[in-house]
From TrEMBL:
<dbReference type="GO" id="GO:0003700">
    <property type="term" value="F:DNA-binding transcription factor activity"/>
</dbReference>
<dbReference type="Pfam" id="PF12833">
    <property type="entry name" value="HTH_18"/>
</dbReference>
<feature type="domain" description="HTH araC/xylS-type">
    <location>
        <begin position="214"/>
        <end position="312"/>
    </location>
</feature>
<keyword id="KW-0805">Transcription regulation</keyword>
<protein>
    <submittedName>
        <fullName>Transcriptional regulator, AraC family with amidase-like domain</fullName>
    </submittedName>
</protein>
<dbReference type="InterPro" id="IPR009057">
    <property type="entry name" value="Homeodomain-like_sf"/>
</dbReference>
<dbReference type="InterPro" id="IPR029062">
    <property type="entry name" value="Class_I_gatase-like"/>
</dbReference>
<dbReference type="InterPro" id="IPR018060">
    <property type="entry name" value="HTH_AraC"/>
</dbReference>
<keyword id="KW-0804">Transcription</keyword>
<dbReference type="InterPro" id="IPR052158">
    <property type="entry name" value="INH-QAR"/>
</dbReference>
<dbReference type="GO" id="GO:0043565">
    <property type="term" value="F:sequence-specific DNA binding"/>
</dbReference>
């Protein structure tokens, strides 16, 4: 898929199954990257619904109450995220197992976050699969479920089962899924929005991009107001222009000039929405000597103009 191409496909329907004692951190790390992907792409790529077994309000481990949109047995979709977090042993009774087995017929993919792997395994839904779990539970999990090939990984994707080791890994997982399904460039933009330490990711999601690409991205970020010529950028990143072009196309799906322009236009959009700066001033801050040139690029990228976006 070309970088940042609008797909016009139906949004992916995600059910987020919460249990009493779920982790706020895990929930935010799963949902916020999807929200950001929707915002940055200008499309409804993801549509999520909060679920519980009985549609009664659930409370996180830190006391945050959430009222689910629906009960699990009335929901279906592309992916079910199972999120028990703390106190998961108290949720693995027969009613939960039956509900999860039934849900496996209505959701294309089952994803277990944090300790959710235990609940899937108890329901027999990980038999014959590779999986991980929060690393504090890795040994007892492997001992309890010999039918599961247990791996010490941040996340594991095996056919229609996805398992994840914890709250921080949930962000890496969702970022990986965004990159896999909608392009590494969008995943990069989401990572930059959240200021992750290694914003550029390879197709594997949890592996940082090459040093050359990371250096180039850092230089781009530092010089949005006064963009460098691509040959200069490559030289300062420690590579030839051809090498940088090749690496960036392989890792982000776009050449340096396209990535650079998108970063500048993303800043422009942020300034349009969050400030009262004149369009001419925004253009200068984003490396455009001519406001009309920025407006043309802005319209081509976001299908609107700065003034229309501000007025809307």
């Amino acid at each position: 898929m070309p970088v940042w191409e609008k797909t016009h496909a139906a949004p992916q329907k995600i059910g987020v199954l919460l249990f009493q004692g779920f982790s706020n951190h895990c929930l935010a790390n799963a949902v916020e990257p999807m929200r950001a992907a929707n915002m940055l792409s200008g499309q409804q790529l993801y549509d999520w619904t909060f679920l519980s077994l009985d549609v009664q309000p659930v409370e996180s481990s830190s006391g945050l109450p959430v009222t689910p949109h629906n009960r699990l047995n009335a929901a279906s979709g592309d992916m079910l995220m199972v999120m028990p977090s703390y106190g998961f042993h108290g949720h693995d009774g027969w009613s939960t197992q039956a509900a999860l087995r039934a849900a496996a017929r209505r959701f294309s993919t089952l994803t277990a976050l944090d300790t959710g792997s235990w609940l899937l395994a108890r329901a027999g839904l990980l038999d014959g699969y590779k999986a991980t779990i929060h690393w504090e539970e890795l040994t007892p999990f492997a001992e309890r479920f010999p039918e599961v090939e247990v791996l010490r990984e941040r996340f594991v994707i095996d056919r229609d089962r996805i398992t994840c080791s914890g709250a921080m890994a949930a962000f890496d997982l969702v970022l990986h899924l965004i990159g896999r399904d909608h392009g590494q460039a969008l995943a990069l933009e989401v990572a930059q929005l959240f200021m992750t330490r290694d914003s550029a990711r390879s197709h594997g999601g949890s592996v940082p991009a090459s040093r050359i690409v990371n250096r180039a991205l850092a230089l781009m970020q530092e010089t949005l107001e006064d963009p460098l010529p691509i040959p200069t950028l490559a030289r300062r990143a420690g590579a030839t222009q051809k090498t940088l072009e090749t690496r960036m196309r392989a890792e982000l799906g776009a050449p340096p000039a396209t990535v650079y322009q998108r970063m500048r236009l993303t800043l422009a959009r942020k300034l349009v929405v969050d400030t009262d700066l004149a369009v001419s001033e925004i253009a200068v801050r984003c490396g455009y000597a001519n406001p009309a040139a920025m407006t043309r690029a802005f319209r081509a990228t976001f299908a609107t103009t700065p003034r229309a976006l501000r007025q809307g």
